[in-house]
Recover the amino acids of this structure.
């Protein structure tokens, strides 16, 4: 009964699959290739699906295609954030013409504004091992940054990723940030679990990511569905298919005839067209439970996709997991190939007694970067998270199938790598795993069936219907397409010239007439064929002939059967070989032809070395190719180079090793640098310097120059090496140029009889880039406009050419690195790049006619700056080298940007600048900027507290000193606030706003110094000129002067020339500490010196004079006081009074006049700290340390035992004053008015006490007998 019901059950199950999962035309592919997400005109959200869990990656590569449609100040490409975190873990955005990339919350930016209406491929790579973070734009390296070792070593696990908009997770709900949305199209977002190089990213431009792919099942989106875009086509040939398939047998009691892999292989071979060939198949052991699921064309956006189980009771029915690698030839657009493959596999297939069907929910078709090694683990029924860690086994080498790339991969779909990664370890006794190869031993590197090889010679006619195509390429693709149908591979294809025997003259005429009528051409070609299925030799030869010959309808290639000659060849195997190199010792085993062996790298065991056993196209025997050790690290270090003897045979290997070591080492120590330079010098002496070898050495020198290593000890050695390269390089041409970043060499072989002079120049150069050079075969006495550097050699130089048959060569060098030419014996600064010339590396001096050198200044020459033409003398400074001007004349500078020199010898030339002040390093400039902004911010806060205290508490502002202090605090607060906002306001680029900002800053600066001067005036009246000083409307006049004079000055500047204000570079700004941002300030030197420097200097001179007089007066008062009372002198109070007066009168500002020479940097630090914190010190001395202020705080702001009763301290002072009235030395003048009037005698309260009413050695200094409204001493005296 069970057997009778079994066919019906299978039919019902397959019907369920066909109706729920498979429409009649096949399910649509979930691939997004050829489609884009449109973020324009409506709310749009794309985020990583919840089913796709981001693994904790230790290295990664991310690529995304962006097409901006509308320009916005800020936009977001993508953002990945850790769970519960607000900082960006990984992201890409644009801001103000900059492209911004984030990693672990740290931000990097490059000056790149992606043009609108164009697709741009932007990639980010990072590795915790290399600690490098790189950004590529359209394949070009735009950022290579070091990642601080303190940052995380892994990408956060299970975070959230969004496209086109930033986001935050609040209470478990994702909220999107507005204002930074991307307006345009986004496509092809892919992530790999491995750091890829620029070459790999370009080579894998059409490969899908193995962590995040461009597939609907990886993304959750709403409101905006993906749209097709024909411009996103990408042709590719390598694909990976992963699926679960049900194999049902109609009669379950029958014993299965074929194995599951044979059935799968036959199925795929039947349904796939001829251009899709199966490369490898991996099939898991059959299971009685198979998960079948949803139709991928219908996305369930609210729930996770559900799956159902099909259980079978018969062993004849199987559910297997399959991993298939297919090749599409010729290459086809990824989206088209995916849809075709997906559609073919989505339909049920019946052959005889067996029915097969694939579950679309498990079916994925993805382009890959390279085919994997066949020793990898099989697919399993358990889902593997993309990017999960994998284990490796270091043992025997592994092999790939014929024709595979030389790099190895891990084929487990869960591994995060596609290329250059170790194979997955295989259990000792694997169960249920098989491939298309028979008797495959997973502990062996040998394939199950050895391939057979054939030589094919063929003549053909090709119709020239398509012009401009390479015939050889067209024929090769045609041959591969024909033979690829039966799983054959074409290797060593070669075109031959057509020839016929002499007695075939009549046949030739007939063929030529026919070809002319049909527009045909006759070709001959030869190639080898690999048959991986190892069929019978005779059968295979006939099969090849049948496939290639015959009249193929609608094809442009016609082959006569008699013109196809197929012969069997036996290439044998590559013998075992031990290869010793700087990357280790590798013992390559006996390997079949067209197989690639891989071995674990000796130094870095996480990578693989590979070597292919090739079929020689001439001898038709197996031979070893050169090992590919690029993924391996050298097993020796720079210190081991000393043990190597450089010979002509290993010199190229030594240079290659040095290149690799420098890539790993980074900056070199002095000893390491000396070793590298020594070995390069040895290479030059023992080798024939070819352009290839010379170019490699020049690249090494360029890498050394741009490093942070100290070059002073090897500067002369490096110059000698570059000279030797130019002198010894062997090249057949008349001239040869070698240019690398920051360095250029030009070598010209000259004819002495025709020598009319030479001119070498650099037309364009930027730091870190390759210079653009030119050579003119004549002497140019006048410099070329716009050149960075040029040197012209006179005709008289021919007298120094060597005699005899020795080559006559002139070489020029350009050095775009100043660090190579450091002279500790001079205070002058190198202000140009360095250019040199030599003749056969010989000494050229005392020329009859001068050499003309023109160099562009790195820093524009100011009016009073001195420049001098110099040359590099290798004998100076005890052989370390230094600059010398003997034999060179400095002509008048062409402009502020160029200087021309005349020298009578050949060497390395430069221009020195005599700077009158010590330059500020970038580190110091950044620190000073932080100090300035931080100090101004702190001062603003405490000035606000001071103002609030004096304004709120009326008793504190009843006297004149307090009112003057309030006005000074307002002026300083305005100065600090405008200074802090200046850079931000200037960034708007508004002309009117910048002028207003600059004028306001100018006004508050003048007002601050005016009120400092008025403080000095008031102090002079109060403490020095005590008697009979009467000033009507005293405080009103002070206000008129304090606020009016600055207003008049600023108004006059605006009236005379409003353009005197504007945006200026930071070097011309108020304190020269604003980095490289624009700063709104006075841009006219005349107005600056008259209205700022002269005004400030006048005020400070007056304040210093008053300060000295006041100190003398106070000292005199103290002496009298101590003599009368017998109290001891309190030094701390004297020091506090001096400090208080110093900040109140602005006596720290004169430090600016001492910021030059060797003490420039320390004085700038002192200036920035003291003056940016002036408001803070005023708060300390005039609020925090004043007893009456503290009492008001305790009365009004404190509670409990800290609170004071509200009584008048002034009344107590008046009572004390009445008791001592008989001791007054001088009575009040009759002209003294009421304290309530607005006019009073300035000395009213000071001639009553010769000591000024000072109470010494108490908690504060204050007037003890000063009634309200009197003039108490300012500063620390009040």
């Amino acid at each position: 009964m069970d057997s009778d019901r079994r066919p019906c059950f299978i039919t019902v199950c397959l019907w369920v699959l066909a109706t729920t999962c498979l429409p009649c035309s096949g399910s649509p592919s979930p691939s997004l290739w050829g489609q884009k997400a449109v973020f324009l005109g409506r709310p749009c959200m794309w985020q990583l699906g919840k089913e796709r869990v981001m693994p904790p990656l230790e290295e990664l590569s991310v690529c995304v295609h962006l097409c901006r449609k509308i320009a916005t100040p800020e936009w977001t490409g993508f953002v990945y954030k850790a769970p519960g975190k607000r900082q960006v873990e990984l992201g890409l955005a644009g801001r103000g013409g900059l492209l911004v990339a984030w990693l672990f919350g740290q931000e990097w930016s490059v000056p790149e504004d992606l043009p609108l209406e164009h697709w741009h491929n932007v990639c980010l790579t990072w590795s915790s091992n290399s600690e490098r973070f790189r950004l590529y734009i359209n394949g070009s390296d735009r950022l290579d940054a070091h990642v601080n070792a303190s940052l995380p070593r892994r990408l956060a696990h299970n975070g959230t990723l969004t496209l086109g908009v930033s986001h935050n997770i609040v209470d478990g709900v994702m909220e999107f940030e507005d204002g930074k949305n991307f307006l345009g199209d986004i496509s092809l977002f892919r992530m790999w679990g491995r750091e890829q190089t620029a070459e790999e990213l370009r080579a894998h431009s059409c490969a899908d990511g193995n962590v995040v792919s461009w597939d609907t099942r990886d993304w959750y989106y709403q409101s905006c569905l993906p749209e097709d875009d024909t411009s996103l086509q990408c042709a590719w040939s390598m694909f990976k298919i992963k699926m679960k398939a049900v194999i049902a047998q109609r009669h379950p009691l029958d014993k299965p005839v074929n194995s599951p892999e044979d059935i799968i292989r036959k199925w795929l071979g039947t349904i796939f067209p001829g251009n899709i060939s199966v490369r490898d198949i991996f099939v898991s052991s059959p299971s009685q439970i198979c998960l079948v699921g949803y139709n991928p064309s219908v996305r369930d956006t609210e729930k996770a996709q559900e799956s159902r189980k099909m259980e079978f009771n018969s062993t004849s029915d199987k559910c297997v997991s399959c991993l298939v690698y297919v090749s599409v030839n010729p290459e086809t657009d990824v989206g088209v190939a995916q849809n075709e493959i997906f559609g073919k596999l989505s339909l049920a297939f019946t052959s005889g007694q067996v029915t097969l069907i694939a579950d679309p929910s498990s079916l994925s078709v993805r382009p890959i970067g390279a085919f994997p090694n066949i020793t990898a683990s099989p697919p399993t029924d358990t889902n593997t998270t993309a990017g999960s860690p994998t284990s490796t086994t270091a043992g025997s080498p592994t092999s790939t199938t014929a024709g595979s790339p030389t790099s190895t991969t891990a084929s487990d779909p869960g591994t995060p790598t596609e290329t250059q990664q170790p194979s997955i370890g295989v259990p000792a006794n694997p169960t249920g795993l098989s491939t298309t190869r028979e008797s495959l031993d997973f502990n062996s590197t040998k394939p199950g069936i050895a391939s057979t090889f054939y030589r094919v010679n063929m003549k053909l006619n090709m119709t020239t219907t398509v012009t401009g195509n390479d015939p050889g390429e067209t024929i090769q693709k045609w041959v591969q397409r024909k033979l690829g149908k039966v799983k054959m591979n074409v290797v060593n294809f070669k075109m031959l010239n057509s020839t016929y025997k002499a007695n075939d003259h009549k046949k030739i005429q007939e063929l030529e007439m026919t070809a002319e009528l049909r527009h045909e051409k006759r070709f001959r070609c030869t190639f080898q064929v690999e048959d991986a299925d190892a069929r019978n030799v005779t059968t295979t030869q006939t099969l090849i002939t049948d496939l290639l010959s015959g009249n193929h309808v609608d094809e442009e290639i016609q082959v006569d059967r008699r013109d196809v000659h197929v012969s069997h060849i036996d290439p044998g195997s590559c013998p075992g070989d031990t290869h010793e190199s700087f990357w280790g010792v590798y013992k390559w085993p006996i390997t079949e032809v067209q197989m690639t062996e891989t071995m674990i790298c000796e130094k870095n065991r996480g990578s693989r070395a590979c070597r292919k056993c090739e079929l020689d196209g001439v001898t038709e025997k197996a031979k070893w190719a050169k090992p590919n050790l690029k993924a391996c690290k050298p097993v020796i270090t720079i210190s081991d180079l000393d043990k190597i003897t450089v010979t002509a045979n290993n010199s190229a290997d030594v240079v290659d090793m040095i290149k690799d070591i420098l890539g790993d080492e980074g900056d070199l120590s002095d000893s390491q640098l000396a070793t590298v330079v020594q070995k390069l010098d040895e290479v030059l002496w023992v080798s024939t310097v070819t352009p290839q070898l010379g170019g490699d050495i020049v690249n090494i020198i360029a890498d050394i120059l741009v490093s942070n290593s100290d070059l002073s000890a090897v500067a002369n050695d490096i110059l000698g090496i570059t000279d030797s390269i130019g002198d010894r390089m062997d090249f057949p041409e008349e001239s040869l140029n070698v240019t690398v970043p920051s360095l250029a060499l030009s070598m010209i072989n000259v004819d002495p009889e025709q020598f009319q002079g030479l001119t070498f120049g650099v037309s364009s150069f930027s730091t870190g880039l390759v210079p653009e050079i030119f050579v003119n075969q004549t002497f140019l006495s006048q410099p070329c406009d716009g050149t960075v550097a040029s040197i012209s050699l006179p005709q008289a130089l021919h007298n120094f050419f060597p005699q005899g048959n020795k080559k006559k060569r002139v070489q020029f060098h350009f050095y775009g690195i100043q660090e190579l030419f450091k002279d500790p014996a001079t205070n002058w600064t190198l202000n140009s790049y360095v250019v040199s010339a030599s003749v056969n590396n010989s000494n050229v001096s005392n020329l009859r006619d001068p050499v003309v050198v023109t160099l562009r200044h790195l820093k524009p020459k100011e009016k009073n700056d001195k420049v001098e033409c110099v040359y590099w003398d290798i004998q100076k400074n005890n052989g370390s080298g230094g600059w010398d001007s003997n034999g060179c004349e400095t002509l008048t500078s062409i402009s502020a940007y160029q200087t021309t020199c005349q020298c009578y010898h050949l060497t390395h030339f430069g221009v020195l600048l005599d700077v009158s002040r010590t330059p500020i390093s970038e580190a110091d400039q950044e620190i000073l900027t932080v100090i300035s902004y931080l100090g101004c911010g702190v001062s603003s806060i405490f000035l606000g507290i001071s103002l609030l205290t004096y304004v709120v508490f009326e008793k504190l502002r009843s006297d004149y000193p307090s009112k003057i202090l309030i006005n000074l605090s307002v002026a300083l607060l305005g100065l600090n606030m405008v200074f802090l906002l200046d850079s931000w306001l200037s960034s708007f680029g508004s002309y009117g706003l910048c002028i207003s900002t600059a004028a306001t800053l100018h006004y508050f600066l003048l007002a601050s110094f005016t009120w400092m001067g008025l403080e000095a005036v008031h102090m002079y009246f109060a403490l020095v000129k005590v008697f009979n000083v009467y000033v009507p409307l005293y405080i009103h006049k002070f206000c008129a002067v304090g606020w009016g004079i600055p207003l008049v000055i600023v108004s006059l500047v605006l009236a005379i020339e409003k353009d005197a204000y504007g945006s200026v570079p930071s070097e011309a700004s108020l304190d020269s500490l604003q980095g490289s941002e624009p700063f709104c300030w006075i841009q006219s030197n005349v107005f600056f010196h008259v209205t700022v420097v002269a005004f400030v200097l006048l005020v400070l001179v007056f304040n210093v004079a008053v300060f000295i007089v006041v100190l003398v007066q106070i000292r005199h008062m103290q002496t009298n006081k101590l003599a009368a009372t017998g109290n001891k002198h309190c030094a701390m109070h004297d020091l506090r009074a001096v400090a208080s007066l110093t900040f109140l009168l602005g006596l720290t500002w004169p430090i600016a006049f001492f910021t030059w020479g060797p003490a420039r940097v320390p004085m700038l630090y002192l200036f920035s700290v003291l003056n940016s914190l002036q408001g803070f010190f005023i708060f300390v001395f005039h609020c925090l340390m004043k007893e009456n202020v503290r009492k008001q705080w305790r009365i009004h702001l404190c509670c409990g035992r800290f609170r004071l009763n509200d009584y008048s301290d002034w009344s107590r002072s008046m009572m004390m004053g009445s008791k001592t009235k008989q001791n007054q030395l001088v009575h009040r003048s009759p002209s003294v008015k009421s304290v309530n009037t607005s006019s009073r005698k300035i000395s009213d309260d000071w001639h009553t006490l010769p000591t000024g009413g000072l109470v010494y050695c108490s908690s504060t200094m204050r007037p003890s007998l000063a009634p309200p409204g009197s003039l108490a001493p300012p500063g620390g005296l009040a």
